[in-house]
């Protein structure tokens, strides 16, 4: 079970990307996408942005569960107040775990924003952020 | 303020204040496994090895700030915004770009000097607005995070205006704004009234600059919150002194047409 | 309160604020007020040297049958002169409050240039609101 996580900014530009595998049930936490699958991940996630655009006006919640499907992969989305999208590409449904993961990442993103040198739509390059995201993934996914 | 042309559909991704963002999104290569390991560490750790990720976001939720300290800092910000233009060349360069066109800068002749001071004063509310803009972007995310699991994004005009009037105002000034009105003349204008904006409570504007209102700073915060929630708008601060409240300020919120179209569809 | 007038002098002895609170006062020309302020500044400096007690400050109180003048000098050299009725109590409290108003509405005003004449509408308004009800 592998996951591809991306944070997309307001101009549809990627701010952060990461791949994980599951750590539960004996998984070792390393993503196992097929080699030709990996570039497709970005495209799949990008194409789901259109759907998110339409759905976001219908619901006022932040966590939108599964917005899109592609073959056997699901795309889940968490939309923040400032229109930043957290997208997770996964092949198994695990709504609650994913919601907790998103909540953790939301907190990390809010802390990143508090940095006065970080502006909206800038790439997130902090190593601490990266390690915390991976820690959250290990905890929940 | 120059904006990118929106497409016809009301559901177009909108980017907040273009003057803050630089560059367009660039293509990224597919992710490599060793991405993070190969980046050299440019992080300078403090001696206690703590980063901003260790601070709790609710730590300063209840703390208060001395009004005098803020007043001194804000006074310096106003002076900085006034003195930013370094000379006539700089002003002309600024006025050549369409996003900063003060209406009374003339291209030639001895009228230059008089129009320079007028132009400086007409740019000051814009700069104060920009100062408040970045604060508003951060405040929006922080306030909604503090709601926790029950956080909701606002999708309607009235919802976001209520959020600004109560939650946002209360978090900054510890009191809600005094009134929220809808303009009768224009569909897209709303007015938020504050009888005594705390940021300019010690400031007296001299007569020759009577159109400047230092609450443009708060207008910038409001504009950022609206832009972040995808309600593109312009927010300006106007002073309407009354007998009882000499500092009464009206924030005029003018939404773009795309917002009205979307509101009609919903 | 029988406050008659308030004057504020800057560090160099120049008059930066003058206001009458009682209609019956004789009005001097603005030049006269400037001369008065400069004279007082000089007298204040001389009295601080001439005083037989070592280490004393300058002239603080001047009383006559018709008025009482009190001077408060701040740590930065700004002087606040209060002219009041002869038996006006609590002038100290009034002086402190005027100093507080000065620190708020004049010093926190970004459009005010230090040591220049005070043209802050908020300062005028609040000063009047403080003095007027007690006349």
Please give the alpha-carbon distance between the first and last residues of chain B: 28 Å
Classify the beta-strand content of chain B into a percent band.
5-15%
Average pLDDT score of chain B: 74
User: Which percent range fits the helix content of chain B?
Assistant: 25-40%
Shape of chain B: globular
Structural class of chain B: alpha+beta
Concise account of the structure shown:
The complex is a heterotrimer of chains A (141), B (266) and C (135). Chain B contains seven helices and four strands; from the N terminus they run H-H-H-H-H-E-E-H-E-E-H.
Supply the key terms:
heterotrimer, A: 141 residues, alpha+beta, five-stranded antiparallel beta sheet, 5 strands, 37% helix, globular, C: 135 residues, 3 helices, TRAPP subunit (chain A), Sedlin (chain A), Longin-like_dom_sf (chain A), Longin-like_dom_sf (chain C)
Describe the protein in words.
The complex is a heterotrimer of chains A (141), B (266) and C (135). Chain A contains 3 helices and 5 strands; from the N terminus they run ββαβββαα. Chain A has helices at residues 37-55, 95-113, 127-140; strands spanning 2-8, 14-21, 63-70, 73-79, 85-90. Chain A is globular, with a radius of gyration of 14 Å. The mean pLDDT of chain A is 82. By secondary structure, chain B is an alpha+beta fold. Helix content of chain B is 39%, strand content 9%. In chain B, α2 packs across α4 and α4 packs across α6. The longest helix of chain B is centred in the middle third of the chain and has 35 residues, at 112-146. Mean pLDDT of chain B is 74; it is low at 1-39, 87-91 and 95-113. Chain C is built from 3 helices and 5 strands. Chain C has a 5-stranded antiparallel sheet, sandwiched between helices. In chain C, α2 (91-106) packs antiparallel against α3 (121-131). The model of chain C has no long low-confidence stretch (mean pLDDT 89). Chains A and B meet through β2, α1, α2 and α3 of A and α4 of B. Chain C: InterPro entries: Longin-like_dom_sf, TRAPPC.
């Amino acid at each position: 079970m592998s996951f591809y996580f991306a944070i997309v900014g307001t101009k549809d530009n990627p701010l952060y990307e990461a791949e994980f595998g599951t750590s539960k049930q004996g998984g070792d936490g390393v993503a196992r996408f097929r080699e030709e699958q990996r570039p497709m991940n970005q495209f799949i996630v990008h194409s789901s942005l259109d759907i998110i655009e339409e759905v976001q006006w219908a619901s006022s919640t932040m966590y939108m569960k599964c917005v899109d499907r592609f073959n056997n992969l699901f795309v889940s989305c968490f939309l923040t107040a400032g229109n930043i999208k957290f997208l997770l590409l996964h092949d198994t449904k695990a709504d609650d775990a994913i919601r907790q993961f998103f909540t953790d990442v939301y907190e990390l993103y809010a802390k990143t924003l508090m940095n006065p040198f970080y502006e909206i739509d800038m790439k997130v390059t902090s190593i601490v952020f990266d390690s915390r995201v991976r820690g959250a993934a290990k905890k929940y996914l | 303020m120059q904006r990118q042309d929106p497409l016809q559909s009301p559901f177009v991704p909108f980017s907040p204040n273009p003057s803050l963002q630089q560059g367009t999104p660039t293509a990224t290569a597919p992710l490599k496994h060793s991405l993070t390991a190969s980046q050299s560490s440019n992080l300078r750790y403090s001696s206690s090895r703590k980063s901003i990720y260790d601070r709790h976001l609710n730590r300063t939720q209840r703390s208060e700030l001395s009004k005098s300290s803020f007043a001194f800092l804000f006074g310096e910000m106003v002076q900085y915004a006034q003195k930013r233009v370094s000379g006539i060349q700089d002003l002309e360069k600024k006025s050549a770009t369409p996003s900063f066109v003060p209406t009374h800068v003339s291209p030639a002749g001895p009228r230059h000097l008089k129009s320079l001071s007028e132009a400086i004063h007409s740019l000051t509310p814009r700069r104060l607005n920009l100062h408040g803009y970045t604060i508003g972007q951060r405040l929006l995310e922080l306030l909604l995070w503090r709601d926790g699991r029950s956080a909701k994004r606002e999708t309607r005009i009235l919802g976001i205006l209520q959020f600004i009037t109560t939650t946002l105002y209360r978090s900054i000034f510890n009191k809600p704004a005094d009134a929220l009105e809808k303009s009768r003349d224009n569909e897209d204008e709303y007015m938020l009234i504050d009888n005594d904006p705390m940021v300019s409570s010690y400031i007296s504007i001299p007569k020759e600059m009577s159109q400047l209102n230092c609450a443009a700073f708060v207008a910038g915060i409001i504009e950022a919150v609206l832009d972040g929630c995808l309600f593109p708008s312009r927010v300006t601060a106007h002073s309407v002194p009354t007998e009882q409240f000499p500092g009464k300020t009206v924030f005029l919120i003018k939404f773009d047409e795309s917002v009205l179209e979307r509101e009609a569809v919903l | 309160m029988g406050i008659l007038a308030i004057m504020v002098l800057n560090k160099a002895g120049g008059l930066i604020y003058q206001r009458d609170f009682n209609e019956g006062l004789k009005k001097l020309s603005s030049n006269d007020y400037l001369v008065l302020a400069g004279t007082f500044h000089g007298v204040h400096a001389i009295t601080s040297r001439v005083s037989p007690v070592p280490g004393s400050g300058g002239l603080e109180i001047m009383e006559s049958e018709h008025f009482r003048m009190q001077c408060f000098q701040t740590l930065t050299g700004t002087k606040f002169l209060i002219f009041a009725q002869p038996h006006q109590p609590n002038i100290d409290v009034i002086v402190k409050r005027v100093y507080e108003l000065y620190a708020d509405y004049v010093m926190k005003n970004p459009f005010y240039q230090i040591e220049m004449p005070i043209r802050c509408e908020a300062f005028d308004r609040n000063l009047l609101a403080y003095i007027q009800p007690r006349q």
